Amino acid sequence: MIYLRLLIFFTLVSVLSLHSQDVVVMSGTYVSAGSGVVVKMGSLNVSSGATVVIGSGAKFELFSDLTNSGTMTCDVNSNFEFVGGFQVITGSVNFGNLNKSGGGSIVLNSPITVSGVLSIQSGKIYLGANDLTVLGSIGTYSPVNSIVQNGTGRLIRRVVGTGDFVFPISVLVGSNEYYRGVKVTFTTAPSSGNLSVYFNGVNPGTSGLPLDDGGVQIVNVWSGGYWSVEPSGGLSGGVYDIEIEAHGFSGTSDPTRLRVLKRSSGGSWTLQGTHVAGGGTPTEVVVRRAGLSGFSEFGIGGTIFDFISAYLAVGFTVSDIYVETGATGNIAYIRLDWNDGNPGKTHGVWGWSFDVTSSVVTITDVTLAPSISTAFSINKTPIPNGIRVLIYGNSASVILKDQGNSVAQYVVARVHFDSPGSDGDYLNAISLVNNTVSDAVIRDASLLTLSSMPAGDGTINLNVHSSSLFIEQPPSFLPSGYSDWRKYGDINWDGGIDIADITGLADVVIENWGAVTVNDPNGSRPFYEGDGYNGTDADNSDRTSADVETGDGVIDQMDLATLQDAVIDVTWPSYAIPAIAGKPAYKFYGDDDTVKGFATLKKINDGILHVDFEIFNPGDKGSIIRVRLSNSVDVKGVQISLKVKALPNFERLKFDVTPLLPVSGFKVAFGKNELGYLVILIYSDVGKLIKRGDRQGIVTISIPGIDVEKLWALQPDVKLSVRNLSYNASIDVRDANYIEIPKSYMLYQNYPNPFNPGTRIEFDVPEFSNVKLIVWNSLGQRVRELVNGQVDPARHVVYWDGKDESGVRVSSGVYFVTMYARSLEDEKREFTMTRKMILMK
């Protein structure tokens, strides 16, 4: 440690080398360094009352900290250099020229000013809560060697005349530092003054969007932050260009599409001036704009593709399919996956194209999936060994949307093909090609404009496994007076046996004959209405088909139970009539009424008959499937079939099915049959209906280890009984875990609280439950019911606007919100909790 207590004048070129020593300038001393003098020292500590003067041409090199509690005067032509290491400046200093070299960093504990040139040859300057003001110019710098904004401190520059004024700022984002520099080039000089730049690392919002910039639609703002550029010290007027450089950017594939947006503090975004092509890379963008005036806040705006981690893929739902050798009419399903990576924006897929080709099987047709057939159209062109397909929305408002935070999966098309002529495993038998770029289109519904993007490949090759199957034909009989055979149990005489026959027989048992339509070859009619056999051909035919348990002429609940077991097990039970006992109830593979290897589409889906399979905890031993029904017509029954033999060790797997509302009171029967299918039946034997609804939870299915791909491999099939006729539902399979499922019930404190005029109320529901959320006043009087009904497992948010049931605003005071919940999965599990809220006007 060296203490300087003497007056030092350097009149000749000389070097005072103390770089391994710490120097303390004591109170009452005067240290002066003149032109040509170089002073090297470890640290410099100027005590209170001491004075240090650095004259023109002098240079101080510090290898450690600078602490100024006294007076430091630096000529504008003096030089102060911090060399290497971790160095701290404490106490305000007005430097002449300031240089950082040798790596390391300078940390400001106080604001400083540079009257001359600031250069950062290597290393960084951390502002903390302190401003760094540059009255001269900024020399050497780079995105690596920059001024780091790690607090509320700002970089301030003096602006005089025209030319470039650079603000080389970096910011801390988590544990990373990213360059967020600004360059302002005045083309018309303002009045002299200062500009300060500060980067705000919060989402600036999209107020004022969309904007049209010469035909380019700006629909979003980079959520990573925005720049505050503020004048002071009398700066006003002038015209300038601006360049913003943002490293650590994400979302764009083309930086030249980005635009500089401008707004008054916190207001709506505008497009002042003229766009100038930017550049850089998708992660280090440079965005420019010319002809601006006035200062405030700047952000980066983009088109529909920017700031979107978009994912679009087209492929088969499964990679393997099993068919009967020589069979015709097999079906493979094509799925589209879509996520725009931007929750809250109505982006979607409007059209796409692909080629379906095969040199192994004969592709006979490609058709739209029922779930999109009313909203989309299809164009098909024959090509060698296949079909070229274009699918597009019927209007500009038709799109397939994502799931918010996660990928939405749509079955969009069906490939119809004939099986190979011989047994074998045919790898890559059917391929999807050219499913990219030109016709894979996304758009923003608010703009009604179309834009193209590449489509990634999903499962684009389908393996076909072909084998000869010899399954006994289901038993049938020739009714007296007819030339057409009829299967036992085929109540509606449509050629197959399924849920529609079960609900039809249930209606017969309760003597609701008129509700059962029989597709009699001689003309459709209601099921024969009468007691006992009366000798007519129609009566004998109907009763023979329905009397499957004893053949005693009485149709009752035992016949219904026999038919139920037959549909689940594929085989008639041993207690059925001798003509059918132990024989197949229906041929699963290949007669005129079933498509070999797949379920039949017997009836057109006339309306919204759609089923969602949502998987919670996919791949986990506790994974379950929620089955949701959307139906625009009343449904009498549901039949779900899953090919569980596609699962590893399926013989040892245990399955469980739990009914949910709105099927409370319905029969739910299920079983695993000899063909390796899990069949679930939901129906009422007392004439109840599943009323029209959207995404109604009907059952949960417990299948350990199931995930989206495995469920598609189970070839899910859902038949619905509508008016006792069989209809196929369209199907989607998705991962339900795009929201975190809470572990327990909870009612959270409202926010804000106190509030005026409204407040948010959040609550957790861990499983399907009936929930009520009621607001009370301090007298215990009910004010408003916010929730009453079935609620899915999730965290939910409701907003109370401070009004009662009549829509009248309530007065200031104390209110209470109570949550009542009862589990639909375990009726013994209940929850009640109350929170206090304060309305203050």
TrEMBL record:
InterPro entries according to UniProt: Dockerin_dom_sf (IPR036439), FlgD/Vpr_Ig-like (IPR025965)
Segments forming domain FlgD/Vpr Ig-like: 765-822
Organism superkingdom: Bacteria
One Gene Ontology biological process: polysaccharide catabolic process
Name of the featured protein: FlgD Ig-like domain-containing protein
Species annotation: Candidatus Thermokryptus mobilis
